[in-house]
Structures are given as structure tokens and as C-alpha cells.
Design brief:
elongated; 6-stranded parallel beta sheet; 4-stranded antiparallel beta sheet; about 35% helix; alpha/beta
């Protein structure tokens, strides 16, 4: 594809392979992110389209979706338990019954243009029957659905794209966390109880495309040490516990400070009991580096 801007011609290269992830935010956002991140880890970000990653502020989103559908090698509809039944808030009409529903249009485009379709079931959803679908996408019900309950199931999609559709794996894996834990998020009252115990920590909220409803809620703190060496030693010591529990904070060191943010990525960057346990351990360990607060052998922690 070529675009002309004055005297200059700019070429836009069409991707050789592109997976289009179709989903409803109110139904399967977290699972769509799981599928997307796993595929991006294997094939690179340019090989996977999802609206939250590929449409930026100020861009005409309809054109971006239409272009991605045109280029798509495969369309992956993510079907959760609400996928069939979600309604328009203005008229109460089922979204899927509207010709302007984008999820419907995405599947219509894939069927009309004979694109590869890999329909995915999540969160206990059942495959739709022909009678539950508009005529234009009834054929979807005749396709074999893949039921996903954890990361290992997504590997089937990865292998299918690589073996059957010529998607090329990247040489170095992109360092994205893959959701595997569905621990429930803590309630507001539970968070208040946590802050009463963990006095060095606060709850902060920030914008995040990966967060549920576009926000991240995190436990945060900045720990100050007497030296750079102490700060690094703290992180090295804590890494043993982090590795053993397989729950990793976002942390960074600047001279004698260690800044830490903790939330559970798997549930849309919300605070879960796992985050509290990690924060409790880090606060306990920090006492070893605070004069007058030493508590003995750091390996004796049993929390």
C-alpha cells in the first residue's frame, strides 16, 4: 500500500501474518489480553492486533479495525459467558442483533472473506448454537471451538499459527507476564485493613491499558536504605522469596532507594491476597536494613 503526501510517497508494508483478536470488553477482556500477550511473546507485537494495543488516542478507530481485518491472516473470536447476551444500554437490544455491532462485523468479515477463524471459549462459556446467532454469522456455530482454561491451552493456538499459517516465532521472547492465576481482587474494606497493617505502603491508581476498566490499582512503597549496597542486597535477598512464590513485583533501584509496585496482572492489575503476602514479606525483610529494627535470620520468615 502506498500513500502520497505532497511530493513524498510513503510505502506502508502489509504484514505477512496478522492475528486479529476479537472480543467484548465486558465479557472477556482479561482472557483476550492473555491470548494476545502469549501470541506477542511468540510472534512479536506486529503480528497480533487487539484494539487496546493498536489504536492510539486521536486515531479513527473504525478505520484501524477495518484495515486490520483486511490484513488479518486469522481472526480469533474470544467467547465468554456474556458474549451472546450483552445488550445495548440505550435500547436494551442484544448487541449481536445489531448490524453495526463490531464483534458481529468482525466475524462477518472473516466468514465473507474466507479467513481462518479460531473461535475460543473462556470462563465456562458454551459454544453458540445456530439459533442463537444472526444469519450472517450462523456458520460460526459449525466451527470447532477451543476451550481455554489456562496458558497451556493457548499454546495450541501458538502452534497452529506457527505450523499451519506460517507465523514466524521471534528469536527472543518478549518479556510479558502471562496470566495463570485468577485470585479474586480485594474489596475496598479489605484494602483498608491491609493499609492499617502495612504502614509503609499505599494504594495508588493509574491509567493502564492492561488494567481492568483501563486502570491499575497497586500497592506501592519507596524503601530508603543506608547505602546502594544495602538496596541491592535487599533486592537480591528478596528475589529468592519472589522466585519461590512466582509472584513478581515491579521494582526499580535508584541509588539508595527501591521503589516497588505490586498488583496481580492476571486479574487486570488489581490487588489480591498474593500481593499482600509479598508486601508483608518485603516489609518484614526491610527491618533487617533499618537500624534498631533487626529481627534475626532473614531466612526464618514463614509468612
Amino acid at each position: 500500500m502506498r500513500h502520497s503526501y505532497g511530493m513524498k510517497t510513503v510505502s506502508v508494508e502489509r504484514p505477512k501474518t496478522l492475528a486479529f483478536v476479537s472480543y467484548r470488553r465486558d465479557d472477556s477482556r482479561d482472557w483476550a489480553n492473555l491470548v494476545t500477550d502469549t501470541l506477542q511473546r511468540q510472534f512479536g507485537r506486529a503480528a497480533v492486533f487487539i484494539d487496546t494495543d493498536n489504536i492510539r488516542i486521536g486515531q479513527e478507530w473504525t478505520k484501524k479495525i477495518e484495515q486490520a481485518l483486511e490484513y488479518a491472516t486469522v481472526v480469533i473470536p474470544i467467547v465468554g459467558p456474556k458474549w451472546l447476551f450483552l445488550q445495548n444500554p440505550d435500547d436494551g437490544r442484544r448487541r449481536l442483533d445489531s448490524p453495526n455491532d463490531w464483534v458481529r462485523r468482525e466475524i462477518e468479515d472473516a466468514l465473507t472473506n474466507d479467513k481462518e477463524i479460531i473461535p475460543v471459549l473462556v470462563s465456562g462459556a458454551q459454544a453458540p448454537t445456530p439459533g442463537q446467532l444472526p444469519d450472517s454469522i450462523k456458520k460460526l456455530s459449525s466451527l470447532q471451538f477451543l476451550r481455554i482454561s489456562d496458558k497451556r491451552d493457548v499454546d495450541f493456538v501458538v502452534n497452529h499459527l506457527a505450523d499451519r499459517l506460517a507465523f514466524k516465532r521471534v528469536k527472543t521472547e518478549l518479556d510479558f507476564p502471562t496470566p495463570v492465576d485468577r485470585s479474586p481482587a480485594l474489596s475496598e474494606s479489605e484494602l483498608n485493613d491491609v493499609l492499617a497493617r502495612l504502614t509503609a505502603w499505599e494504594i495508588e491508581q493509574r491509567d493502564s491499558q492492561r488494567g481492568h476498566d483501563g486502570t491499575a490499582v497497586e500497592l506501592v512503597t519507596t524503601l530508603k536504605f543506608n547505602s546502594f549496597e544495602d538496596a541491592i542486597h535487599f533486592m537480591t535477598t528478596a528475589s529468592r522469596y519472589v522466585s519461590r512464590t512466582d509472584h513478581h513485583p515491579f521494582w526499580e533501584n535508584q541509588y539508595k532507594d527501591v521503589r516497588i509496585r505490586i498488583s496481580t496482572w492476571d486479574i487486570g492489575l488489581r490487588v489480591s491476597a498474593k500481593d499482600v503476602r509479598l508486601a508483608e514479606y518485603l516489609q518484614w525483610l526491610y527491618r533487617e536494613y533499618t537500624p534498631g529494627e533487626r529481627v534475626g535470620d532473614v531466612h526464618s520468615y514463614t509468612g
